[in-house]
Amino acid sequence: MPSVSSENVEEVLVSPLSTILSEMGKSIASTQKALDRNSIDTQIELSNDEALKEYDLEATWYHIPEVDIELKMALSMEYEEERDSKNRIRGYKRVLKAAPLNASYKSLNSYDVEGSSVLKAKIVSIPASSRVVEE
């Protein structure tokens, strides 16, 4: 089994905050899609089963109306070089990096948990906009 250095672990744990939020959103959307796919497959099964057709059964649909997220994390600001077409440094872009506070991060970095930040986010589903039909 390959060994994992603390540097490798830190690289995995520390990510731009935008990446963390984006991945959380993608995970929630993927979960909703799996729920929808299951309901569609169930409805197809019910519609194709001759014995069940007479009962007029419909699949149950599940919906994630909202998700509250609270993350305790260590935040740090880093600067990434911005280069022009000739590869000359033109400036630095600030990137907010976040690392979830867990046992690995705390022990690897001797991090004091009392200095942590809390990120609270709410992801709420909204109804689809009505489509305008051109006549």
Can you offer a commentary on this structure?
The chain is α+β, with helices and mostly antiparallel strands. Helices cover 38% and strands 30% of the residues. It has one domain. The protein has four helices and four strands; from the N terminus they run H-E-H-H-E-E-H-E. It has a four-stranded antiparallel beta sheet with strand order 1-3-2-4. It is elongated, with a radius of gyration of 23 Å. The N and C termini lie far apart (64 Å). Mean pLDDT is 78; it is low at 1-12.
Brief account:
This protein has 135 residues and is of the alpha+beta class.
What is the approximate shape? elongated
Q: Give helix % range.
A: 25-40%
Please give the alpha-carbon distance between the first and last residues.
Answer: 64 Å
Write down the domain tally: 1
Annotation, overall tally of beta strands: 4
Class by helix and strand content?
alpha+beta
Helix and strand run: HEHHEEHE
Calculate Rg over CA atoms: 23 Å
Summarize the SSE layout with pairings.
Layout (H helix, E strand, L loop, with lengths): L5 H8 L1 E2 H32 L1 H4 L12 E18 L5 E12 L2 H7 L7 E8 L11
Antiparallel strand pairs: 1-3, 2-3, 2-4
Characteristics:
135 residues; alpha+beta; four-stranded antiparallel sheet; 4 strands; 38% helix; disordered N terminus
